[in-house]
Amino acid sequence: MALQTPEIRAQARRIGFHLAGVASVAQTYDDEYPERLEKWLSQGYQAEMGWMENPKRRDILQVFPGARSVISLGLNYYTNHRRREDAEYGKIARYGWGRDYHRVLSKKLKEFSFWLTAQDPGVETRFYVDTGPVSDKLWAQRAGLGWIGKNSNLISRGYGSWLFLGEILINVDLEPDRPHSQHCGTCRRCLDACPTGALPEPFVVDSRRCIAYHTIENRAETLPSNVSPELQGWVAGCDICQEVCPWNIRFARETDVEDFQPYPDNLAPKLTELAQLEREDWERRFPASALRRIKPAQWRRNARANLESQGNNGASADHAGDFI
Ligand code: B12
Ligand code: SF4
Ligand code: SF4
Q1: Residue 13's domain spans which residues?
Q2: Total structural domains in the chain?
Q3: What is the pLDDT of residues 304-318, one digit of tens each?
Q4: Could you identify the atom of ligand 2 that is nearest to the CA of residue 93?
Q5: pLDDT tens digits for 266-304?
Q6: Distance (Å, rounded) from C-alpha 161 to C-alpha 71?
Q7: Which of 91, 106, 140, 272 gets the highest tally of CB atoms within 10 A of its CB?
Q8: Best mutation site among 92, 137, 169 for ligand 1, i.e. most ligand atoms within 8 A of its Cβ?
Q9: What's the gap in Å between 149 CA and the centre of ligand 3?
């Protein structure tokens, strides 16, 4: 049976994906992606994420030479829970509340790949969910799932930007969907809300100033002095530029993926507890979680930086634990 886009979309739904679309590898898209990636790198916006410089990121055929189409897939992760906003609690971004999205999406992508290859013995696939040098957002926009907003996240009409993205590269020419149009208009709420100026221009994130980068990826002992005082309680990622987005305010929808229900400790973690987090407690709090990327020393550093910026009667970070 020859694979057709409508049948692929139907199978994506059966497997539990919320959004699916197809982009063509051979087609020329007018999103100027290679130039924009180049400029982003030349400005040093990747900070210490050296892996962003991998040349394969510029050309999908270097990732999978047989690729003819990209099936892009989205999974809604929004739940109706609220995090505690009081100063004594640290804020964890929604992406990390429940089970690790890499695991959840990979399982579905694997099942989908099995199905695709079972349709025809000549079919070959590769799948990624932030697990290779492939831009998940770019292919999602090309495949019509949504548009890249000025906050740099992919926003969909059906779910806002609370979506994890993955894709299957396939050696079959499929009928492509139309790339999604832009719907940010004159809005600039995200740009104005970012406390550290990490969105120096629309669509562009300077990781060197981004709270999400520093709380998750930065492994240094201390956080930069221009970021630390602006953390506003964030200890793992940052959702500010998504929470202010009108598309999220209007269109966020409770997910049906049980795995994304928050682990109990992730909605209101006490800063004083995180400031003393040791390996054993880290293992207990974050099983099969994307937050394991943040090691115990980073949790302590992030929590202490927040406690320091709250003043805490001028105490030094080394004594943050004394305030319990
Ligand atoms: C590196 C990375 C980061 C870095 C850098 C963020 C960034 N925006 O580049 C850091 C650590 C800061 C980060 C943070 C977050 N991340 Co992240 N991250 C990635 C990763 C690995 C690569 C992104 C990338 O290629 N960046 C490089 C630049 C060049 O590309 P770009 O962001 O696509 O930006 C270009 C376009 O916007 C383009 N552009 C498009 N239109 C236009 C128009 C104009 C006029 C211009 C000038 C430019 C332009 O130009 C930009 C270059 O300047 C992807 C996974 C993947 N493999 O793709 C996840 C990914 C983007 N992250 C994700 C998430 C969830 C987050 C966080 C929300 C987590 C959190 N809550 O803390 C934050 C969001 C921060 C933000 N505002 O973007 C999701 C996003 C899902 C979605 N719906 O969009 C992804 C796709 C992972 C996944 N598989 O689901 N992330
Ligand atoms: S994640 Fe936070 S720090 Fe980073 S760009 Fe968005 S609002 Fe700014
Ligand atoms: S807040 Fe406004 S400008 Fe920013 S991503 Fe949402 S719609 Fe676009």
Answers
A1: 5-83+93-170
A2: 2
A3: 999 999 985 344 444
A4: 1
A5: 999 999 999 999 999 999 999 999 999 999 999 999 999
A6: 19
A7: 140
A8: 137
A9: 6
